[in-house]
Design brief:
Two copies of one chain form a homodimer.
Chain A: H1 13-18, H2 24-46, H3 49-55, H4 60-67, H5 70-90, H6 99-116, H7 118-129, H8 133-136, H9 139-142, H10 146-161, H11 171-187, H12 189-196, H13 203-222
Chain A binds a DNA duplex through helix 4.
Chain lengths: ~220, ~220
DNA sequence: CAAAATGTACGAACTGGTACGTATGTCAAG
DNA sequence: CTTGACATACGTACCAGTTCGTACATTTTG
């Protein structure tokens, strides 16, 4: 209503004017980007669909058109975040390296990843508050990080064979120890900083922590 | 209205009948208990004041009477949770023990605490999602865990003096390493379990992890 | 022209918060 | 000891704003 005037000057003028141009892929990607930010900042319950719609170059209608519901959008955000890591982890060539060096590279990678992707870390925290209910319903996510375990298992085995590692350790335990340290630094940055007045994102601190976790893990395996 | 009959048989009969009996302390405590459960399960935004009121032996009116607002209630819940730990941490007598033994006791305590109080762990996670905004506004919480650092500093110093520890380490870093491991096991229990099909709350796993973190930290200090 | 993609406006339910009324306890005066 | 007055403690019903979701209309594209 009240827009009948635009009717006749259509084909090109209108495009340039209101800029509409169907581009589903880009629309979805745009929604996901904004939604990632919103959910990782406010949580699932705290995130507002209207707030997402506003910051999008499209409308709320499109969110429901593509993702069905708020939860559907949240799940899509989660899957997209996990998919992004898979890429990084996959193309690490560690089998040529000596066990100790391989482990250090793997740890550094995990460390840097968490440090560089606080959004992802926060989403995982949020998902844990929801008892991982959404992850469990998504086949896409589940069969993911399993490859890391195989990588670690290989490194540990070679390490034992070469007598550079002396302790028999469970790969999943080792992965947990690494994850815990790298993840916690980011996930608990605020409460930790608030209590101890320490900024965990300072370059010097980052540098020190990166070698610290590696030393600790390798020390543990050599004990 | 319609209760005028109870007027004359007051002193004891009425109390037994409708059970009302002014007990502000118990009412507040009751609200806090329920609210802790609600917020730690659903988060601040996800927690419902009505849901809390329902599970209380009092009404929503009382929540606002005592805590002013939803956020006020949430903050009270947070402070209460932190206050509970202070008690535990305070009466640890570690100065008589040898450095290594003292550290093992401290680590076990942290480990067991997190394991036993998933509600607390979840609240801290939630608070981190909110950038620790509420903690920052509460003087009560801030000057809390600082004592832990002094304890650790003392242990490390004695350890260096006695040449049982060789590495010069920052007490806060050590505390973070311990916290990270203990906290992560609980905070990320669900996503971790979902991906690796491992139940981190199994007794055998708990036992293994408890010694694992202690060995790792002590190994790190001896390297 | 049909199907996919998009925009606008609106509704219905939820949810934090409150107005209003009642009960309980305390304490001083009678 | 009992009466009455005042403050604290409590209950019910309700309101107003928010928020997820949708009906309807329109445009783009193959």
């Amino acid at each position: 209503m009240g827009k009948g005037a635009g009717r006749e000057r259509r084909s090109m003028a209108t495009r340039a004017e209101n800029g509409r141009k169907n581009d589903p892929q880009r629309t979805q990607e745009n929604i996901l980007e904004v939604a990632t930010e919103e959910f990782s900042t406010h949580g699932l319950a705290g995130g507002r669909v209207d707030a997402i719609a506003e910051r999008t170059r499209t409308s709320k209608r499109m969110i429901y058109y593509y993702f069905g519901s708020k939860e559907g959008l949240y799940l899509a955000v989660l899957e997209r975040s996990y998919r992004k890591i898979r890429t990084l982890e996959a193309d690490l060539q560690l089998s040529n390296l000596e066990p100790e060096e391989a482990l250090r590279v793997l740890i550094s990678t995990t460390f840097d990843h968490d440090e560089a992707h606080p959004d992802f870390v926060r989403l995982v925290s949020i998902e844990n508050i929801h008892h991982a209910a959404h992850m469990l319903r998504s086949e896409a996510i589940r069969d993911l990080n399993v490859s890391v375990i195989e990588t670690i298992a290989g490194i540990l085995e070679r390490g034992i064979d070469q007598r550079v590692f002396t302790r028999q350790a469970d790969p999943i335990d080792i992965h947990m120890m690494i994850s815990a340290f790298c993840f916690f630094r980011v996930s608990n940055r605020y409460t930790f900083g608030s209590i101890f007045r320490r900024d965990l994102s300072e370059p010097a601190t980052i540098e020190r922590h990166r070698t610290m976790i590696a030393d600790a893990v390798i020390g543990y395996l050599k004990a």
